[in-house]
Amino acid sequence: MARRHTLALVSGIAVAGLALSACGSNSLTPTATTAASKAASVGTAAASPVSNVDPALVAKIPAKIKAAGKIVVGTDATYQPNEYLDADGKTVIGMDVELFDAAMAKFGLKTEWVPSAFDSIITGVGSGKFDVGVSSFSINDERKQAVNMVSYFKAGTQWVVAKGNPKNVDPNNACGLKVAVQKGTVQVDDLTARSKKCTDAGKAAISPLVDPDQAKVTAMVQSGKADAMMVDLPPAIAAVDLTGGTVQLLGEQYDSAPYGYVVPKAQTEFAQAIVDALKKLQADGSYTKILTKWKCQGGAITDFAVNP
């Protein structure tokens, strides 16, 4: 998930004004899913339309995946609207799900989405538990040392506070505050660096409140347990909608960075094939159509790449 170090503050940004910069609130209803996404859940594979299959891509499927006839995807299904559980409590849906399903359809592959803790997905890909990881991972040097990362989207970090900002939170002067973040995200690193600046200046440290479930992170701000939270812009906007406006965005997103699919280090050819599949989705209009459906078109990129 994404980050930056400086931001321009505003007293509150309307969700509607951000519809073109990240996933908007209208995309949060179950009706915004495709049949493929609805079928994709732990233990259930989404069918891929045979008509979409590209023989050149099929030739680059790793032997393990080809033999299984499906690709197992590790995901943290708590990050609405990118990847989250539908009303049935088991089907994984979201922008990331629909886009990756469409890319895999080019290979003729079924997808099996397996919910997992965010900070265990990369390890799971490395160990072979998952074939890939798709969970709004920001691409950074540390992650690229462990796995290949295929860029497909872009987003930044957003601060969120209770409606009206009752604690008068200033992200540039958050010393002594309690700030909630999701475990394993780059927001944790961002918060740690900010806190060190506070203590180096002789001020009180920032108290991090860390939880593996983004919904619980948001709840901390709602309840007043946390003074603010830091999260990617798409789920920040979703939080405003899902809480009925009891929380609000503070300032603008910053450190906009590409998201990447996590692919094993040894599978560079397959990673490049996924890039080629994304380019085909862009060429046939599917990429833009999916992002627009989820009101995520502002995060679209054109320079898909392995380890950008």
Topology overview:
Elements: H1 35-39, E1 45-46, H2 55-58, H3 63-68, E2 70-75, E3 78-79, E4 83-85, E5 92-93, H4 95-105, E6 110-115, H5 121-127, E7 132-133, H6 141-146, E8 148-162, E9 178-182, H7 186-200, E10 207-211, H8 214-223, E11 228-232, H9 233-242, E12 247-263, H10 268-283, H11 286-293
Parallel strand pairs: 2-6, 2-7, 9-10, 9-11
Antiparallel strand pairs: 1-6, 3-4, 4-5, 8-11, 8-12
Helix pairs in contact: 4-11
Shape: elongated
Strand content: 15-25%
Secondary structure class reads: alpha/beta
Strand order of the largest sheet: 10-9-11-8-12
Q: Low-confidence spans: pLDDT under 50, at least 5 residues?
A: 1-21, 25-45
The overall strand count is 12
List keywords for this structure.
five-stranded mixed beta sheet, 12 strands, 308 residues, 23% strand, D-Maltodextrin-Binding Protein, domain 2, four-stranded mixed beta sheet, disordered N terminus, elongated, alpha/beta
